[in-house]
Every structure is written in structure tokens, then in C-alpha cells.
Amino acid sequence: MSGIFNFCAGPAMLPHEVMIKAQQEFINWQDTGCSVMELSHRSKEFVALASQAEADLRQLLNIPENYKVLFCHGGGRGQFSAVPLNLLSKGKSADYIVSGSWSKAAAKEAAQYGDINILDITQEHTDSKSVLAPQDWQLNKAAAYVHFCPNETVDGIEIFDLPETHGVPIVADMSSTILSHEIDVTKFGLIYAGAQKNIGPSGLTLVIVREDLLGNAAKGTPAIMNYRLLAENDSMYNTPPTYAWYLAGLVFKWLKGIGGVAEIAKRNQAKAQLLYQYIDNSGFYYNNVVVEQRSLMNVPFWLQDESLNARFLAQAEQQGLLALKGHRMVGGMRASIYNAMPIEGVKALVAFMDKFAAEQS
Ligand code: PMP
User: Fold this and answer.
1) What is the residue extent of each domain of the chain?
2) Considering only CA atoms, which residue is closest to atom 12 of ligand 1?
3) How far, in Å, CA of 190 to CA of 208, rounded?
4) Percent composition of the chain: helix, strand, coil (DSSP 3-state, to 5)
5) What class does CATH assign to 17-257?
6) May I ask the CATH class of domain 260-360?
7) 173 CB under 6 A from ligand 1?
8) What is the pLDDT of residues 182-237, one digit of tens each?
């Protein structure tokens, strides 16, 4: 590695080993004489690759037989539309938990398609913010589903528990947390995630959906968003994002190789702890999320003296610490430390932050 660490929230860095492997295979994949991206999605070689990637993902997340895994187009926002189109049956409403900017956007999109009930769980305190814990969500027992976002990429808030829904399916936007720690898939009706953080490059979106939720798409649902149609066609109703699927497969192999989700979860804990601990003790930087709800993937932080922001970013970039600028809606800084970010990257960031702070005094 070149000593450059990319803290972008997405598209995010991919594991170095994966990039090297992709480079080696770029123009001649498995002696086909072609790049993977030049192969038909219906060729036996690609079909084998595709099902191996699915099998590896199933193993990593322990996905039961009665769940379909769909490899879709359209990103997280595509699913903001696809979920209500497929699951919000006539005469029912859906609960949308709003914990930050992405869940708010999901609710806004869903409202175009049906009756939705918004539960704003955000809480602002004098110098911190939090969200209501799942046991305090006032859920509708007759809802078609409850939608929430376990990790708010912009706000840096993570919800680690699940609500008791008495059978109402839980739908989770896991775009920025999937594969970062173990989950019990059986507790969910549907999980979706844009690939560009913990899975692979942008252009691919994963949907993991319980079989009994298929087959109720609203009239007018675009065919390429119809879960049942996608499932019946092994996600090849139309041409899937083949190269992104291939790269996702390499990422799954890499993750299995290092010990799977349990191992990466330990590493992610260690990385986040290092960074938050430094921020909290620095007196120079701060994070505004209550400790127990801090995201392990996206760490927003601010300089006490915001007039130093531009200098901080310029010097960080000179040091090879890239894409630390905070989201335009919240300002400040944000370090995204997804699965592919090694602890060395976080150590380099902390060392730089410390040096920068010392130089300003
Ligand atoms: N949900 C979450 C939690 C996200 O972080 C993002 C993108 N950062 C999206 C949805 C939207 O994803 P996309 O840009 O792939 O539509």
C-alpha cells in the first residue's frame, strides 16, 4: 500500500488485496481471454461466479434458505422506492423511523407511494444528540412493515438493537453497516444496502428478502424493481451490474479469508474506539453523538475552532489522508472507517490530528 488512506463515505476504499486481485485478472479472467466485464451475464462462467458470490454472502451473514438474495441496480435510493412498491399493500400503512438524514429521505420517497407513518426519534440535547431506543418506538401493530436505518452515514448514529414488532416485518437500510458486525437475518423481513461502502463499487445494491414478502408488488411497479421477478430470474431479469457483482464476490472472499464477520467486527470496534477515544480526550476536536449510539463506521467530528477547517483538510490531504471533509449538511469532518480501512489508517489519522492540534497551540 502507498501510505494513502481514503476516508470517503462512499464510494469508499476497497480492500487492497481485492484491488490487486482485480488488477491481475483485469483483462484475462480465468483464462477466458476476456475481462469479466466483457462476458455475457448468461455465460456459464459468469453464472458460476454470480452464484459463488451469493453463496459466500449467505455464509458470511448466515442467511437462511427462506430468504432470497437479489443483486439489483439503483443504489440505496432505488430501494427507497422499491421497498414501498413491493411491500406496502393496499389498505395498509408503513412505519418509518426517522433517525437522521438517510431515513428521512427514505420516508419522503416512500410517501409518494402510499400511506406512511413517520416516527421522528431524534433527540437534541445541549451539546449532544441521540435517538430513542427501539423499545421506546411507538409502533403500529397493523403496519405492513417498519423501516429504519441502523447506521446513519451522515449523522454518525448507529442503532444496535431491534424493536419488538409482534410480527410486523422489519426493513433495514444497511447501506453503511452491512457486514460490519454480526446480525441475525431471521429478525428482518428485508435488508438492503448499496454496495459502495462495505460490499464493492457503486452500481450494485443488495437486497435480502424473506420469501413470503414477495409477490405483492403494487400495480405499476417497474419490472426491474419487482422483487419476485428478480428472484425468479436469479437477479438477471435484465443485465445486472456484472463487474460490480464480480468485485463484490472478491470482497466476500477476502472477508471470509480474514475470519468473516466476527473477526471484522472486532477490528471495527478497535478502530472506532481508537478514534473516538482520541477525539474525546483531545480538547481540540469533538463528536456530538451520545457514546452508546456512536457509529462504528462513520465518525463525524468537528474542530473547536472551525476557522482551522480548511488548513486541517489541506494538511491531511498532504499526508495522504483523503476525503475527511464532513457531509455538506452537517459540516466539520467525517472519517468513514468501513471494513476495508486498516487500523494503520486510523492510527495515521490520529497521529496527524494530534500533531495538527499541537501545532495550533
Ligand atoms: N442509505 C444510506 C444509509 C446511505 O448512506 C446512502 C448513501 N450514502 C444511501 C441510502 C443512498 O445510496 P445511493 O447513493 O446508492 O442511492
Assistant:
1) 17-257, 260-360
2) 76
3) 6
4) 40, 20, 40
5) alpha beta
6) alpha beta
7) yes
8) 999 999 999 999 999 999 999 999 999 999 999 999 999 999 999 999 999 999 99
